[in-house]
């Protein structure tokens, strides 16, 4: 017997087009940010690092997740469940599982990329241990979420086959349980380099700017929080209709995560295109006392630049000393702050 919808429900409503239009904008911006990151590496004349390869992986899985949402819309995502044929509903549920797997891979890959980038610019055994611990949690949680997504029903095909008896984890609670730890890990990763940055030899204004570049990842936390709000309102009895907000913000979250991982590396490109906006003044590490000075230093680290100079102690009558930041830190901050000639 057909279900009679309540008077407030219009079975002709379709929220699908609003998803695809909005997602397209986000996807284009993400692709541009990745291109900008890779082109910045080219401008620096350095090879791609491990952080670049992991963010490329994250971008590819984010694209896969986006394609799944597009396909879902053609099958009936955005419509009321009463008007979606059972065959299409089965395909939507299969795509939902695939989307959750890709979501976990993307979020994990972007976090690992950021942590690897931290390792490249902030050397040191203690910081390396801290990033390794966080990375271990990220990988372990990502693997756990993938396994739960696959085996959330017993039997497994009970997730998408509504005609067989099965026992499944409550879908909404699974999504929420996935989101909360990810938000916590995002906050930890965002704050991880702050102590390093604020102990660098630079002006207060410059510390704020460098910190701001890293804290752009806070947009991921905002996207995750909004997604969590939509998860609270998701109704599995009308999944194709109520899942729209969650699907949209899931795609936004993974794409914003990729963009946030790319922004701190794009300084060379942005300085070429908008140098006046990004120019924040000349800068030098340490102090120049009598008997000391700035000596050119060529370093073969991945972030080397002909414009980079590192203060060195030179023999002289003065016993004053110069604080010498680690080479990788020197080079990254110079890249961040270098004036356009």
From TrEMBL:
Signal sequence, start to end: none
Organism per entry: Endocarpon pusillum (strain Z07020 / HMAS-L-300199)
Family: Belongs to the SAT4 family.
Membrane-topology descriptor: Multi-pass membrane protein
Protein's UniProt name: Rhodopsin domain-containing protein
Rhodopsin domain mapped to chain residues: 37-272
Alphabetic keyword roster: Membrane, Transmembrane, Transmembrane helix
GO CC terms in record: membrane
Primary subcellular site in the record, as a coarse category: membrane
TM segment ranges: 20-40, 52-77, 97-118, 130-152, 172-192, 213-231, 243-263
InterPro entries given in the database record: Rhodopsin_dom_fungi, SAT4-like
Pfam families found in the cross-reference section: Fung_rhodopsin
Subcellular location: Membrane
Top-level taxonomy: Eukaryota, Fungi, Dikarya, Ascomycota, Pezizomycotina
């Amino acid at each position: 017997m057909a279900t009679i919808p309540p008077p407030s429900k219009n079975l002709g409503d379709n929220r699908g087009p609003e998803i695809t239009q909005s997602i397209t904008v986000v996807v284009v911006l993400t692709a541009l940010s990745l291109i900008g990151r890779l082109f910045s590496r080219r401008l620096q004349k350095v090879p791609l690092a491990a952080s670049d390869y992991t963010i490329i992986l994250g971008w590819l899985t984010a694209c896969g997740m986006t394609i799944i949402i597009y396909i879902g819309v053609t099958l009936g995502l955005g419509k009321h469940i009463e008007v979606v044929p059972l065959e299409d509903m089965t395909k939507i549920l299969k795509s939902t599982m695939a989307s959750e797997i890709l979501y976990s891979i993307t979020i994990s890959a972007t976090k690992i990329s950021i942590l690897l980038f931290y390792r490249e610019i902030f050397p040191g055994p203690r910081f390396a241990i801290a990033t390794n611990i966080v990375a271990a949690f990220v990988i372990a949680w990502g693997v756990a979420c993938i396994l739960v997504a696959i085996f959330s029903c017993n039997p497994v095909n009970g997730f998408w086959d509504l005609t067989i008896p099965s026992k499944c984890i409550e879908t909404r609670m699974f999504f929420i349980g996935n989101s909360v730890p990810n938000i916590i890990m995002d906050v930890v990763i965002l704050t991880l380099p702050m102590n390093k940055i604020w102990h660098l030899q630079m002006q207060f204004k410059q510390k704020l700017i460098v910190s701001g570049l890293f804290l752009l990842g806070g947009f991921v936390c905002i996207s995750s929080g909004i997604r969590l709000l939509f998860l609270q309102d998701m109704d599995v009895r009308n999944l194709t209709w109520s899942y729209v907000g969650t699907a949209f913000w899931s795609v936004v979250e993974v794409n914003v995560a990729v963009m946030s991982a790319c922004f701190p590396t794009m300084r060379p490109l942005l300085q070429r295109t908008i140098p006046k906006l990004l120019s924040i003044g000349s800068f030098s590490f340490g102090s120049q006392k009598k008997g000391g000075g700035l000596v050119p230093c060529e370093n073969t680290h991945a972030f080397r630049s002909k414009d980079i100079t590192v203060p060195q102690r030179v023999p002289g009558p003065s016993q004053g000393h110069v604080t010498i930041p680690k080479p990788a830190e020197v080079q990254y901050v110079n890249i961040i702050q270098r004036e356009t000639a």
